[in-house]
Amino acid sequence: MSxxxxxxxxxxxxxNSLTLRPLLEKRNTLESTRNSTGIMxxxxxxxxxxxxxxxxxxxxLSRRKKWEKLCGNLDSKTPDSxxxxxxxxxxxxDIMSERTNTILDPAGYMTHNDKGAANAxxxxxxxxxxxxxxxxxxxxxxxxxxxxxxxxTTDSKEVIFTKEFSLQELKQALSQMDWTKSPGPDGLHGRMxxxxxxxxxxxxxDIFNLSWRNGRLPRDWKRAIIIHIKKPGxxxxxxxxxxxxxxxxxxxxxxxxxxxxxLKYFLDLNDLSDGAQYGFRRGHGTTDQVLYMCQxxxxxxxxxxxxxxxxxxxxxxxxxxxxxxxxxxxxxxEYRRINGRALPWIHDFLGRRVIRVKxxxxxSDNCKISQGVxxxxxxxxxxxxxYLTGIEELLTRxxxxxxxxxxxxxxxxxxxxxxxxxxxxxxxxDLREFADNHKLIL
Length: 442
Prior knowledge:
Blueprint: H1 12-15, H2 20-37, H3 42-72, H4 80-89, H5 95-99, H6 114-128, H7 135-153, H8 167-175, H9 190-194, H10 198-214, E1 223-230, E2 242-248, H11 250-269, H12 286-301, E3 308-315, H13 325-334, H14 342-350, E4 353-359, E5 362-363, E6 367-369, H15 380-387, H16 391-395, E7 400-404, E8 407-414, H17 417-437
Parallel strand pairs: 1-4
Antiparallel strand pairs: 1-2, 3-8, 4-5, 4-6, 7-8
Helix pairs in contact: 2-3, 7-13, 8-11, 13-14, 13-15
């Protein structure tokens, strides 16, 4: 009985390479041993990793030699059409980089099949949102659950968070959808929803209102298929080298749009948005932030005597994936006065989420995601912005601050360099404490 062996995609010419052929045969032998026995010794793992590294080096050398040969054959008589094809080819990623199935798993071993690579990436994404909690943190979790329970059992004074959705709200949400987007795990394509008739739309609205009343989401609405895109110039074998793109339920996105419209209306009506946060706000952008900061610094320079300025640019690492959902629930309730049916729905929306990574058309096992705001969701931006509530008030005591999504800039102007440096360092200390309390990484 033949044994299927997973190998990297290599062109026929590379298979005939005197260097590659024995290496491929050696790797196939090691893979066959593992596949027939079901286990692999530590020594075999080491040998397999070494052989795989040698294959990559040999492949890179082969590509380089072919490139040198190609360049050597070009001259002034080379047709423009051929030069154009070569130029277009320069923008293509290396085939092995795109199609390799060798990904480092959490234990540091190389995977050598698509299923293993998919599981390695899924585990990597799961670990990003795995947070450590102290006993004080668990009190916060209990408080959040109590707040949600209170919203389920107590009528809200805010009608906008309790009344059911109307057909007009559904039509507005549908008009904002991009129907060309890929479907989520439920397989329901946007074109199917786009062409729903009156009866179908009413049935869809009934489903949304049922979910709204109960504060519960269907299981498929909380699932995602992750498509990984390799970052340019990154090593293909590292999970860090891939940017995850989440494909989620289009049905759920429609309901998210209706909820988002209500949240924005309520926050704008009550002036509850952070002024320093320019991300995810209509009429605000990075250009506005840069111009404002530059003008402030220029104003300081024009003073007599001339003032000095100090600026610090910061980034919150993997911030969206590390949002502590219980802390977010409390902030939604206490800082933004969100209650009624909205809070239980958002709480369920954030919890018990499941992802599967798709790798070369192979899906990983189910992987539970315990924290973070769902990547690719409509509510993701506004929930993250609310999670950062308090940064502006905290930092403006000592410095001026600008925020765009998870990017932060601090600046301070003054006549005395020592005082500026002291205030900036104190502000950085305050920001560090805020990040620690919110499970974020600077």
